[in-house]
Each structure stands twice: as structure tokens, then as C-alpha cells.
Amino acid sequence: MLFVAFLLSLLFLSAAGADSTAYEVLQSFDFPVGILPKGVTHYDLDASSGRFNAYLEGSCSFSLEGSYQLRYKSKISGYIHKDKLTDLSGVSVKVFFLWLNIVEVRRNGEKLEFSVGIASAEFGISNFYVSPQCGCGLNCKTSDDRLEMGNLRTNPLVSSS
């Protein structure tokens, strides 16, 4: 029994990498780092199931291009597989006057499709090469983070699942 526990812990460490960041793990599953905001303090990943948890110091919210408000709880969880995040919890988007939970993200070539269950929207992957910062998103006014980003090319949340 002890050997099985040891073997499982080795599997966990080899998949997550002892020194890998949450952002590097995202990239290993073919996702860009920018789907997580800056400031992930730690994460855990069950390599056998793909179950993950990522932790921020606290809740986090920001606007992207002035049109989308995003909110991350201090714990983000779900399942990660190549090109697919499912059963997400801890991430929501404001659509009109409602906060809707983002429950799934799929990579389709050079696009990411975000689903809130009853509707989805696609965005070019180039919009997610840089992680947004809590509070100011991609529009932070610091000398280190002066970014020239293109307009967030969107297809509004209108397609039904």
C-alpha cells in the first residue's frame, strides 16, 4: 500500500512538475497563460484525472477592453485536458446585468471558446498571450506592464450550446 501511495505521488510530481508554475501547466495542455490572471500563489493537479485547483491571494476582478467584466474567486477548480477545461468553478463573466459562471473553455485551433452553459463566445488566442492583472486587467499603468494589445476581437455571447 505504501508503494502505491509513493507511485501516485511520483505521478503527481511528474505531471505537475515540482517547480512548474500554474501558467506552465496551462501551456503544457496547449492553453495560453492569459486565461489566468497574474498572482496565482499555488496550485494542485491530479495527473490521473486532470482535476486541478489554482489559488489566488483573494478574489480578483477586472475589465477587458471595457466590455467584459471578469471575476475570479480565490479558488479556481475544474478538470484540465489537452485543449479542454471542463467543470470549471470560480470564474464568472458579467453579461449585461448578470454574472454567469464560465463552465468550460475549449481551444479550437487559434481560437478559445468560452461557455457559460447556455451560450458561448469565441476569442482569438492572441488575446490571451499575457495574463491580466487583478484590478486593472491589461490596462495597468506601471512601467513594467506597458502593453500594446490589439482590440479584443469578440463574437458576443450569442451562440447557443
TrEMBL record:
Gene3D superfamilies: At5g01610-like. Residues 1-18 form the signal peptide. The keyword Signal applies. This is Uncharacterized protein. The keyword Endoplasmic reticulum does not apply. Keywords: Signal. InterPro entries: At5g01610-like, DUF538.
